[in-house]
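Researcher: Please predict.
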Amino acid sequence: MPIARFLTASLMAAAVVTPHAAAQNPDLLYGRVTTEDNRVFEGYMRWDQNEGTWFDILNANKPMPERNAEQGEELRGRHYEHCERGLHIRWGHVAWHNGCGSRFGQGNIRFGHIQRIDVIDGNEARITLRSGDTIELRSNSTDLGRRNRGIFVDDAEGVEELEWGDIETIELFRPTANRPAAFGERLYGTLRTQDGTEFTGYITWDMDEIFGADTLDGRSADANHEIAFGTITAIARQSARSSAVTLRG
């Protein structure tokens, strides 16, 4: 098997990773997106770069129950050094809120629990769960809202990149046909730390690489390289700045 040695900042973890293919298509995120101008795209989905399976999490904020919000405001004096005109300074963290206390808390939901997403505006969406319950969520990261880094749909005619402002509704359901995803298989393998501890499962590399078609960026002594993870069988740490990458024969 060919071996390449890279000097790369993305390989600083003290670990050995051995990605391998698995029959994962049933786990890949799939659905139908309807845009504001009534275009429809259906297929496997990549969400905000680093979500692509049913067990990945949509990060957002949800409204707090009124009683909890009132209790939080009563206790705010213990936590906030300063609160004026909606500006909060809390243990070095600065944030703007309506009033002197936030009435939103974390509302993270696995994609597998979501049936439908209706865009309300550039900051909020209405989520319909498979249980039939609905909840309105507000952006707290790049997963939801105008800061979203793109929703990619592997439609029958190719991969379509959609921005949050393009979208009216998103329906999530199991694939209607068993076909390969253009993104490749979800990265899967065994990671071993320097003390011998092992973890086996799905892998997210450097926050945004999750599929076999994603590339490992690195540098050898004489060239820069971009290697698809689907062609790699092992990545072995050699130092804080270098690794040996074993490719499929």
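Model: Confidence is low (pLDDT under 50) at residues 1-16, 19-24, 79-101.
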